[in-house]
Amino acid sequence: MAVKSSKPKRGKGKSFKKKAKKVVKEVDILSPAAMLNAYYICHNAPAFLEFRGFPWPGSPKKKGKKRK
């Protein structure tokens, strides 16, 4: 006959694993792939620089969409 233990059986439950940190990769904005992308999305030099994070000084700021 099996003897029942006084402690209740516990399921495996959730295991807590450490999440790996995401490695931030340096991106070359002048790489051939980036330049090809810029060729299709930018209409001029100021647009290219603004997309890459270098806005012209004194350029007007873009306004967000207004919600109703």
Can I get a quick summary?
By secondary structure, this protein is mainly α. The chain has helices at 32-41, 45-51.
Please describe what this structure looks like.
The chain is mainly alpha-helical. It contains two helices and no strands. It has helices at 32-41, 45-51. The mean pLDDT is 78.
List the topology elements.
Layout: H1 32-41, H2 45-51
Could you name the key traits of this structure?
68 residues, mainly alpha, 2 helices
Mean pLDDT: 78
Q: State the helicity in percent bands.
A: 25-40%
Structural class: mainly alpha
Overall spatial form? elongated
Q: Uncertain spans, ≥5 residues at pLDDT below 50?
A: none
